[in-house]
Structure formats: structure tokens, C-alpha cells
Amino acid sequence: MATLKNIKVFYRDWLNFWLLNLTALVLVATWTLFLFKPFEKGLLAVLHYNVYFGFDIVGHWRWLFIIPGIAVLLSLGNIALAIYLWTKEVIWSHILLTLTFLLNIMIFIFIFNILNYNL
Questions:
Q1: Residue 87 sits in which domain range?
Q2: Among 10, 52, 103, 115, which lies 20 to 30 A Cα-Cα from 87?
Q3: 10-residue block means of pLDDT along the chain (119 residues)?
Q4: Which H or E run contains 113?
Q5: Contact indicator for 24, 75 with CB cutoff of 8 Å
Q6: What are phi and psi of 45, to 5 degrees?
């Protein structure tokens, strides 16, 4: 019961409220883009693009699910840790949520670019 009360107080903080909601929005946008953007599901797909060398990792198209999946797991872990740290030190909670939001922005940009290369 005390943990549920901590989560409610954690969510009522204005910075936590906005960071959590924006992170959730970016996660939903990433998965929506990933699931509904058409790309060729052939034997090989581009998994990584390097500016200097071009396509440097190529594999099966199902491996594209790994990066957004890891982003979801890291986001959930960071949010759980931020809730735990909220009772100890508030600034670390804010830093962790900010980094989670930035991680999801970078993953969104990565998925957007990789799906454009796989046309």
C-alpha cells in the first residue's frame, strides 16, 4: 500500500508527469511506426547504418524487433528505479527519467532511419 502511495506522489510531480507521458508517447510512436510502416521483409534487412561505411550489419528482418524491445525493457527498468530513488533523492529520479526520454527519442530516430533504408 505504501508503494502505491509513493507511485501516486511520484506521478503528481510536474516534471515526472511530463517526462513519463512524453516517454510513453515516444514509445507508442516508435512501435506504431515500426509495426505499420511497410518495408520489405526479405531474407536480409539492414540492421545498422554507418555514415562512413554505409550498411555494416545485415541480418534477418525479425532482428529489427530487438532494438525497440530493449528500449521498452530499459524504459520500464529506469522508471522502476526512478520510483525507488524518488524517496531517497529526487534529483536522481529526474535525471533518470530525462535519460529515459532521450533514449526513446534516439531509438525512434534510429528505427525511422533503418526502416527508410529497408525500402
A1: 2-37+46-117
A2: 103
A3: 68 88 94 82 76 77 85 93 87 92 94 80
A4: helix 90-117
A5: no
A6: -135, 155
